[in-house]
């Protein structure tokens, strides 16, 4: 994590670039981002200086700005204290419900338990700091047309966290993009809920870059 722990998306994007430079120098990359990682990937891809090293982009269950009224209310409830992610029951009933569809909740119990445990460990980061930053400061929709690398956009047909319509909008605005909508009844955690569809889509995309 960045030393300041401000959790502002712009700072996290710069931290990502600095980390990549330390590890692989100036090599080209294919950037993959899920949910908030997708927000960071979009900031990266729409920054002319950073985007020079991009060879491709994979955006999973993400959006160029936060248009979901339910998530805005979620942040307000956290700020007011009406809801707390320090409480296991709240995470299991509300947060898990936003992120996983019913079938995954029934069949992937160990994954759900780990998800809840990790959220409890990082409740301040997950619950308020990053979400407040996203609600208040994140909007790259007007910059999407500047993305000029092959882009794969993935979404679940029943994602309650980031609505599938956001993926469709990005597909219309990013010039060289392809959209895959995973079905049936696939939620926010597409890499777990539709692992075979996800793997096939990514492998096919990588073969053609």
Automatic annotation (TrEMBL):
Coiled coil: none annotated. Residues 4-194 form the AB hydrolase-1 domain. One of its GO terms (cellular component) is membrane. InterPro entries: AB_hydrolase_1, AB_hydrolase_fold, AB_hydrolase_sf. SUPFAM superfamilies: alpha/beta-Hydrolases. This is AB hydrolase-1 domain-containing protein. It comes from marine sediment metagenome. The lineage of its organism: unclassified sequences, metagenomes, ecological metagenomes.
